[in-house]
Amino acid sequence: MTHTNFNYTQLGEPNVVETDKQRQARTGLSSLEISDQASAAVQKTPNRVTLDSMVEKIDSIDYIHPEHAPHMTIAVLYLENGYILVGKSVPADAENFDKELGKKFAYEDALRQMWPLEAYLLRERMSV
């Protein structure tokens, strides 16, 4: 789950805390991209699920805002193989709703669900 007010401690600077907005401004990267880069930095074998490999498998995306909860965003990711992933985002206070951020967070929520599925698939390929 992504929280816009959650504080992150920068690597190598244990007492320095930055918000998501500060990290985004500093790096230009989403939390998913930062995680992917951190994984790549410690990669010792060619066997790794990458963010790019997952994004390449997305055929299309629908964004839905329910009639009774228009501040909620649901991202429906349709993968090339026909599998469907659903991500969601909703602020605790509807007054804090931002349509573009809602789409971003719902999309990232769905992608986070894809990561363990892709890891399982990779592990299956490795065991053959």
Number of helices: 4
Q: Count all strands and give the number.
A: 5
User: What is the H-and-E element order?
Assistant: EEHHHEEEH
The number of domains = 1
Low-pLDDT segments, ≥5 res? 1-11
- Form type: flat
Task: Briefly characterize the structure.
The protein is an alpha+beta fold and 128 residues long. The chain has 4 helices and 5 strands. Strand 3 (58-64) and strand 4 form a beta hairpin.
Task: Describe this protein's structure.
The chain is of the alpha+beta class. The protein has one domain (7-126). Helices cover 41% and strands 20% of the residues. The protein contains 4 helices and 5 strands, in the order ββαααβββα. The protein has helices at 20-27, 31-41, 51-55, 99-126, and strands at residues 7-9, 17-19, 58-64, 73-79, 84-89. The protein has a 3-stranded antiparallel beta sheet with strand order 3-4-5. Strands 1-2 form a two-stranded antiparallel sheet. Strand 1 (7-9) and strand 2 form a beta hairpin. The protein starts with 6 loop residues before the first strand and ends with a helix. Mean pLDDT is 85; it is low at 1-11.
Q: What's the topology here?
A:
Layout: E1 7-9, E2 17-19, H1 20-27, H2 31-41, H3 51-55, E3 58-64, E4 73-79, E5 84-89, H4 99-126
Antiparallel strand pairs: 1-2, 3-4, 4-5
Features:
20% strand, single chain, flat, disordered N terminus, alpha+beta, 3-stranded antiparallel β-sheet, 128 residues, 4 helices, two-stranded antiparallel sheet
